[in-house]
Write a structure and sequence with these properties.
Elements lengths: L8 H18 L6 H17 L12 E5 L8 E4 L4 E4 L7 H10 L5 E5 L5 H4 L2 H7 L2 E6 L11 H11 L5 E4 L5 E5 L2 E7 L13 E6 L2 E5 L5 H9 L8 E3 L11 H7 L3 E4 L12 H8 L4 E3 H4 L2 E5 L4 E5 L5 E2 L2
Parallel strand pairs: 3-4, 4-5, 5-6, 10-11, 11-12, 12-13
Antiparallel strand pairs: 1-2, 1-14, 2-3, 7-8, 8-9, 9-10, 14-15, 15-16
Protein name: MBL fold metallo-hydrolase
InterPro entries: ComA-like_MBL, Competence_DNA_uptake, Metallo-B-lactamas, RibonucZ/Hydroxyglut_hydro
Organism: Hydrogenoanaerobacterium saccharovorans
Amino acid sequence: MAKRKKNKGGLAAALICLFMAAATLLRGGRIDLPAVSDALGEVSDAVSDLSQTPAEPVDGLFEMIALDVGQGDSFLLRTQEQTVLIDTGEAEYADTVVGALKEYGVEQLDLVIATHMHSDHMGGMAEVLEAVPAKTFIMTELPEDLTPTSRVYENLLTALEQSPETEVIPAQPGDRYSLGDGVTLTILGPVADYDDLNLTSVVCRVDAGDRSFLFTGDMEKKAENDLIAAGADLSADVLKVGHHGASTSSTADFLAEVDPVCSVISVGEGNSYGHPTAATLERLNEYGPVYRTDLLGEIRITTDGVSLWVESDNGEPEQLL
């Protein structure tokens, strides 16, 4: 199970170079200025490398990382070949997301999904895309009367306009994206037109071997029921709980369709909304452990296609399957 690692190789190289520099000062009892210059240059390069973190390999077939962005959502998905980012949290967490991407060695995102246009999901998106470019960007196509007029939305549109290398694609149920090694991401919703941004959330499922992960944005009861009625395959081992555990999401009928082994809630500590609600937690607890970013910090769930492992900043590692 991969944790963020610091690059220690550069430190060893720097020490070796410093030793070489010292040796040149004593060579033959005189100072060899060209050699000193070369050695110090190597020291500078090695020290510079200390700030560089190589891309960490994924332990297994697929890894989901719930970043701790307070009362918001941001999920980094990784395979051996590709990286996907779903949401970024509020604008104030953009540096947190960019820092996490850098620490995991992500220099370019293959796919970015903005589940819906509320700032607690896409507020930092513009800044993240400016720092770490994306090949493909997916969002829900909105009618004019539902299109936001907020600054963060305008900033996102500007960032996309200034990134011609990024292909912007509307979310279409049934669209499937290969993440390599047989891992696929499938868009499931939204399957209808809505007048509430939460209901327009992009819903997607990742299938990795025998295991699957369902991401729901802030989808609420009506959209959940519409997905069920549309015959969408909602079964998943890991459920990203909708709307931070609000009472309006994760209905009993929906959970019966998903039948998760565990659930993950991205939520802010002591938030004023009362998320997650006691009623939602009671329903979720019937399906296995519930992992929360407000209690555990960053949460990482890894699969080799058969087993599931869970780690977090503030919890003990465990194997679920």
